[in-house]
Amino acid sequence: MKLENNTQKKIAKYQDVMSVVASLVEGETDEIAKMANVAALLHREFGFWWTGFYRVQNDELVLGPFQGPLACVRIPYGKGVCGTSWAEKRTVVVPDVEMFPGHIACSSESRSEIVVPVTHDGNVVAVLDIDSRELNTFDDIDSRYLEQIAASLDGSERDIWFAAGCFWGAQKFFKKVDGVTFTEVGFANGITENPTYKEVYTDATGHAECVHVRYNPAVISLSELTELYFKIIDPFSLNKQGEDEGTRYRTGIYYHDECEKSIIERIFKRYESSSQKLMVELLPLQCFYKAEEYHQDYLDKNPNGYCHLSPEIFKLAEK
């Protein structure tokens, strides 16, 4: 029971830390600044012995922002725990560093280690390196959450899914937003595979009409996108937006990782009411199936087509 409680406390702490990480990195484009704050936060909250980053520079890793004692400045590709994580593009957990082949001993006090790659466009650009003076410090929980934290440092394009009633108008709206680079409409988080529009229309599939939005976080943040989303929906209406009614027209935001969730939750709290219940789902994306081609950019192809959003609403996307 004590072990289980310790595990739960560890997960809860990581979840709290990830919420802070999300606020630290959102909208920030300087990679060193993000790494510095993340290293300081992890080091303070978990009491690790050494916490920091090595950045890829040509054919070696070069010491970046860190917290702890003096460290090795340069590590060759494929060498040691950090170089192995870079070369193999995977998280490396070492219960006992003395047992790791080719271990680079920057300090004799380091006993166990975890190294997580930081990627951008599929390439490793840095590694997050954490050392402990105790054996067997790191486990699958550390791996899972540190990987999500490392992923949050990536400034490349990201994806989010918005269910906002009829997806025709939602796609047209988000296409107009500066920083949105791609949209497509489809069906999300239902119970059937590859549904057709006619099947979804029956409300028997459990899917929601949804718009997949890809955006550049250096131009527009997830917070800003979420704020815009709330401007095009009635967040207190259950399974009904405009004249469209049914579970397929429910409202919801579907995300990939916990860092995104914590950002969105802050916006949700601003819309919560003591007298009305918020009727917007906030869930991990379980599945998304692209809708038939004639639904893609429908209002561009059919300018006079039905849309429950007013012309004034679309002007908000262009500001």
Write the layout of secondary structure elements.
Blueprint: H1 2-25, H2 31-46, E1 50-57, E2 60-67, E3 74-76, H3 80-88, E4 92-94, E5 112-120, E6 123-132, H4 140-152, E7 158-164, H5 167-175, E8 180-188, H6 197-201, E9 208-215, H7 222-231, E10 240-241, E11 244-245, E12 251-255, H8 258-271, E13 280-284, E14 288-290, H9 298-301, H10 311-316
Parallel strand pairs: 12-13
Antiparallel strand pairs: 1-2, 1-6, 2-3, 4-5, 5-6, 7-9, 7-12, 8-9, 8-14, 10-11
Question: Keywords for this structure?
Answer:
alpha+beta, Peptide Methionine Sulfoxide Reductase, Chain A, 2 domains, six-stranded antiparallel β-sheet, six-stranded mixed β-sheet, elongated
What would your notes on this structure say?
The chain has 319 residues and is of the alpha+beta class. It has two domains: 2-152, Beta-Lactamase (2-Layer Sandwich), CATH 3.30.450.40; 158-316, 2-Layer Sandwich (Peptide Methionine Sulfoxide Reductase, Chain A). The protein is built from ten helices and 14 strands. It has helices at 2-25, 31-46, 80-88, 140-152, 167-175, 197-201, 222-231, 258-271, 298-301, 311-316; strands spanning 50-57, 60-67, 74-76, 92-94, 112-120, 123-132, 158-164, 180-188, 208-215, 240-241, 244-245, 251-255, 280-284, 288-290. The strands form three sheets. It has a six-stranded antiparallel β-sheet with strand order 3-2-1-6-5-4, sandwiched between helices. α7 (222-231) crosses α8. The longest helix has 24 residues, at 2-25. The model has no long low-confidence stretch (mean pLDDT 91).
